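User: Predict NAD-dependent protein deacylase's structure from this.
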Amino acid sequence: MPGLEEARRLIAAAGNIFVLTGAGISAESGVPTFRDAMTGLWQQFDPEELASEDAYRRQPALVWEWYLHRRELVAAVHPNPAHHALVALAAQRPFTLVTQNVDGLHQRAGSAGVIELHGNLFANKWLDGCGRCNEATALPGMPPRCNLCGALMRPGVVWFGEDLPRVARYRAEHAAQHCDLCLVVGTSGLVYPAAGLPGLAREHGAPVIVVNPQPSALDQTADIVLSAAAGACLPLLWPPQPAPSAG
Ligand code: APR
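Assistant:
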């Protein structure tokens, strides 16, 4: 694969790696990416009808049901070799893992300290909560409501038009500015501010490696583009998890 040896060399020499993942790293687990022509979740719905606060206020039951469906879909799949390869890398050296994904598959594979820029599908929050809302105050329903103030429970994901979680964004941008290598896996590079992180790393002198079987908007930011599926490619970029030392 063109670029593979150079990518391996850069990764072996890097002291502080920044990894950004998108829906493509979960594609081989069977979680459809958002913009796949055939399988994209958005293919079935108008995103504005399901993934925005306005939509939730207008039709909370429909949106809540769609998220429950997505939770079932994601709970039924498993991390793939790409997720596991990042766990193996973390066993060899610390790095910062930032994901746009809400599927939690990095954590299920064993990655720790994952920075979730777009939230997590399995987390819950409250819409106009009273501040005391919590799972214990939630009355069952579609969606559940707080029995203290009547606030609606909502999925803990970032909806279109919402700001990213401030701490997550700050940590991601800080890591991008201070890394000495940026590895981008499985993102179309269409959605900002996440898509701006590789450019930020490059501005601060870090080479950028992109892993994607298709061209992406980040290719012109990249020093190396590995045109490959993440599950096949990532395990080739660094040694597998070191065998536990004998004795
Ligand atoms: N390995 C690597 N990349 C892959 C694979 C694979 N096996 N399969 C698909 N891809 C690539 C596609 O070529 C595409 O470029 O993954 C990318 C997925 O792009 P999107 O569907 O746009 O997903 P993503 O880039 O993560 O979207 C960013 O947009 O919809 C919002 O909030 C949502 O977090 C999401 C954000």
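The chain has ten helices and ten strands.
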